[in-house]
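Board notes (copied after class):
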Amino acid sequence: MYTYFTKKKMLMATGTITVAMLAGCGNAENETAETKTAWDEIQEQGSMTVATSGTLLATSFRDEESDELTGFEVEVVRELGERLDLDIEFTELGFDEMLTSVNTGQIDMAANDIEITEDRAEQFIFSTPIKYSYGTAVVRKDDLSGISSLDDLAGKKAAGASTSIYMEIAREYGAEEVTYDNATNEVYLRDVSIGRTDVILNDYYLSTFGVAAFPELNITIHPDIKYAPSEVGLVMSKDNTELAENVNKALEEMLEDGTITEISEEFFGGADVSVKPDIEEN
């Protein structure tokens, strides 16, 4: 009787210790999961998901011959992946959708000539700027769409993304907004050429590249309109501070060793967009 109860107590004690050990392991696993950052998960996966439009000439587009996704920011991000030892998985989305996807954590980064503004900086983390530019206007070549300055935008049809900085400027000057769902540059530019719309306010370098790509169209860069100096960076969630730190470290190395300059010159006709332009606004 004594032996039986002694053994029973020992077994009960052993079981209690085992349960406590298992509970301890469970707590440790939970604590590890809770403290794991987005950057830790990206490193474990060995890949980073990046949203881009695939329709924005010079910065994100598909090569006509190979149909391969390329462009200034696409290639900057690919080089970034090499330096961070990460595979890059591109997802092609419209402008509004890519920002929402960054915010909800569905993707890690957006790269699509996204201008750094005070409002956006409150919602997202921007990388070190990789491109500096200013605004210009694409108009019809034969009559400049009847526009001599931004003041003439009132009543004109301005094409672009609804939430872009440039469409905000068009609205401020009284233009009629015409938006598209992730349309190609050719669609935007052809509509100006045939008079379906009157003007596209956009970044100078992207506009120059787009106009040069379609010499048959009746379009040109307005010779007298320059405004809104801008800075462009890669966009990440406010929660991804560790990712941003690593991205910035690699980008600063790429700026210092001339890699971003080389990529810029390839896609912007020899221009170095990583240098601030000296312009007088008008």
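Comment from the instructor: Residues 103 and 237 are 6 Å apart (CA to CA). The chain has a mean pLDDT of 89.
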